[in-house]
Amino acid sequence: MAKNVGSSKQSGPRRFEFKDATSNKFWEVAVQGSTLQVKFGKIGTDGQSKPKECGTPEKAATELEKLVKEKCGKGYTEV
After folding, report:
1. d(CA 29, CA 65)
2. Looking at residue 12, what is its pLDDT?
3. What is d(CA 60, CA 26) in angstroms, rounded to the nearest whole number?
4. pLDDT at position 11, please?
5. Are strands 14-19 and 48-53 parallel, antiparallel or unpaired?
6. 1 versus 73: which is more confidently predicted?
7. What is the rounded CA–CA span in Å between residue 47 and residue 31?
8. SS3 state of residue 64
9. What digits encode the pLDDT tens for the residues 16-53?
10. What is the Cβ-side half-sphere exposure of residue 4, based on CA atoms within 13 angstroms?
11. Angle at CA of residue 10, ends 42 and 6, nearest 5°
12. Phi, psi at residue 23, to the nearest 5°?
């Protein structure tokens, strides 16, 4: 079943991790209605949460994709 990105339904978070000689961190992102929920921190901790109100579910989905591209460009990989 395909994801309906523009839907106001909640979807599970996408998780990304970055590991190298000095870093071991995670970044999670999910759209909940018109809010982008971001969670980040060191792997093994609860991390910090940072919600961002985007106005509409469509804008939240667009922002999610933008941030995913940025994180992948920095070396994060989806797990």
Report:
1. 10
2. 83
3. 20
4. 59
5. unpaired
6. 73
7. 18
8. helix
9. 999 999 999 999 999 999 999 999 999 999 999 999 99
10. 7
11. 115
12. -125, 145
